[in-house]
Amino acid sequence: MMRLYYQAFSKLIKVDRLALTPHQYWIAAGKGMERPYTGEYWFNQEVGTYHCQHCDNQLFSFDSKYKSTTGYAQFWNHIPNSVKLEESNIKEERDLCCAGCDSFVGKVSFDGPPPTFIKYSINSAALNFKLKSFQEDPYFRKIARKEKEAQRQKKVEHNYLESNSNL
């Protein structure tokens, strides 16, 4: 019996057990799901990216996160080549693992929102959130670009009026 237990966790050798809390190790190696509404990121509305807690591989972007009704951090899309699906003992769901370190991060079901209709239910203990700076946010970058263009246009108009007033 102990040998089977060891074989189940031996493929996750890339996860350093000493660097993790017991709860994080239970999720990463034991494929556990945390209790709903207890994770740190299930209601996070910040702008940034979600990385693997263990290998710092970028997994999800804030653009694909949506409001959770299950108590987990939920996404409708992932960063390409960052995660891989594994078979699960539940027919409607699959296990989702990090492509970098094979650690378990959550479950995938195929009843999500459009456009992909895929729902990624992710454990907050398996994620590390990195906040984007103000300048990196595409929305604010677009606003800053418009403001800069308006200032440039005013400067051009001012110079044009000054040159015509001298005549």
What is the C-level CATH assignment of the largest domain? Answer: Mainly Beta
Count of discrete domains: 2
Overall average pLDDT: 83
CATH architecture of the largest domain: Beta Complex
What name goes with the CATH superfamily of the largest domain? Peptide methionine sulfoxide reductase
Number of strands: 9
Structural class: alpha+beta
Range of strand content: 15-25%
Helical amount among residues, as a percent range? 25-40%
Number of helices: 3
Element-by-element helix/strand order: HHEEEEEEEEEH
Report the uncertain regions.
1-10
Radius of gyration: 23 Å
- Any idea of the CATH topology of the largest domain? Metal Binding Protein, Guanine Nucleotide Exchange Factor, Chain A
Q: What is the first-to-last residue Cα distance?
A: 97 Å
The biggest beta sheet is recorded as: 6 strands, antiparallel
The coarse overall form would be elongated
Biggest sheet strand order reads 3-4-8-7-6-5
Organism: Paramecium tetraurelia
Pfam families: SelR
Cofactor: Zn(2+)
Keywords: Cytoplasm, Cytoskeleton, Immunity, Innate immunity, Metal-binding, Nucleus, Oxidoreductase, Selenocysteine, Zinc
Description:
It holds the Pfam family SelR. This protein is of the alpha+beta class. The chain folds into two domains: 2-132, Metal Binding Protein, Guanine Nucleotide Exchange Factor, Chain A, CATH 2.170.150; 133-167. 28% of the residues lie in helices and 23% in strands. The protein contains three helices and nine strands; from the N terminus they run ααβββββββββα. The protein has helices at residues 2-10, 22-30, 138-165; strands spanning 48-52, 58-61, 65-66, 73-75, 83-86, 93-98, 104-109, 119-122, 127-131. A hairpin with a 5-residue loop joins strand 1 and strand 2. The protein is elongated, with a radius of gyration of 23 Å.
